[in-house]
Amino acid sequence: xxxxxxxxxxxxxxxxxxxxEQLEKLLENSxxxxxxxxxxxxxxxxxRRKSEGSLLGxxxxxxxxxxxGTKDAPNGHVFSRYKQSRFNARRIxxxxxxxxxxxxxVQANVAKRRRKxxxxxxxxxxxxxxxxxxxxxxxxxxxxxxxFAVVWWLIAYTHGDLLEEHINGTEPWTPCITNIYGFTxxxxxxxxxxxxxxxxxxxxxxECPEAIFVMCLQSIGGVMIQAFMVGVVFAKLSRPxxxxxxxxxxxxxxxxxxxxxxxxxxxxxxxxxxxxxEAHVRAQLIKHKVTxxxxxxxxxxxxxxxxxxxxxxxxxxxxxTMIVHKIDKNSPLYNMSATDLLRERFEIxxxxxxxxxxxxxxxxxxxxxxxxxxxxxxxxxxxxxxxKESGEYEVDYAxxxxxxxxxxxxxxxxxxxxxxxxxxxxxxxxxSDHLRTGLFPSVRTHSSDTLCSxxxxxxxxxxxxxxxxxxxxxxxxxxxxxxxxxxGCIPKATLPVPV
Length: 499
Fold this sequence. Notes:
Helices cover 36% and strands 21% of the residues. The chain is of the alpha+beta class. α6 crosses α10, α7 (130-159) crosses α9 (183-194) and α7 packs antiparallel against α10 (209-237).
């Protein structure tokens, strides 16, 4: 019998002794034993199958300790929290457009991809990372120097300029290139020729016409290579994409009411003094959709009508501006309530386009919002103040992402419109019933013998009476047992009626 088996038998004996002691105490107290599942020891089947000293047994103990936690860490071990945070982060990153504007799209299985990239080498180098662009920049010059150095060495070798007697000057000799002693000298002459450095130590002569032709060819090629690489670097530095780094989008979007209409709002700002000309905003709702024919569209795009006022997409972008989308009948968010927002899976991509004032190039800034990044019942805090000392408007970007809570109905815009319509119909119906029952009787005026009936009333959210040309008002009081109407309707109270 091994040591592990002996340990297991000892533990079973100890458990049996503990149960017997508990049963004796209960019998001494003359109480019926009550079985409490949380207090009785549960047999651990894993410990019977896995020994405490084995690798699997150690792993099971670690797993149990992580899952149960301790007093210091009641929610579990730090590893469990780390795994949960990584899982949440991975879920947050599942988006089409990142917060900083880059698209989370990778092309795969493209036919003849490298060949097509080489055909548009300029755009490829501009879009490539800086390390690759600088590497191509250096290799272009080094390669051209080496290629023409080999050409110069072949010219000197075939002409006999590298012979020892010609190099030492023991015989009269006119070389193609003066002061050429080997490949190193040819490389230096190649660099001097391509970049017109001209130290004056090495020159071509009239002895070799081919040397003059190669010199002209290298000069033209060097200028073309230099212009190409300088253009790539300049285009990479002046890309309008870098201008988007100073265009800011609010961290969260908010939903609240503006002028009685529920609106989805977000904030955009510009850190530079040079403005974005002809700035206009677009928004796309990306969501899964199933057509009437049963076709599944996993990334269906729906246009959201946005703008500074919710109607016009062009904005006067001189300070942080609110972008508003009115949630009306034409909005895809019309049927969405606060509860639905927690369950929905969609993404709102916001695009800001305009012309850079300093360079005249067009730029585009992007950002996106997931349902977890939309705050229901919030409003952005004001961040523009006027400084009397300098007479300027100051923008405090420390408050750019700050929001405040406001009273907002949790129902959808559709439910809110239906409730308003139902309340309005109920109010009109109750008022018409009272008119039919004679709550407001006809009265006789002093100016004529005709009766002034309630036909002169017009109902449009409140009662408007057409007052005749009589300066003396008379008040008609309703009976005391009547109660006020609900839902904002006019109560059965005193109403001024002209006489």
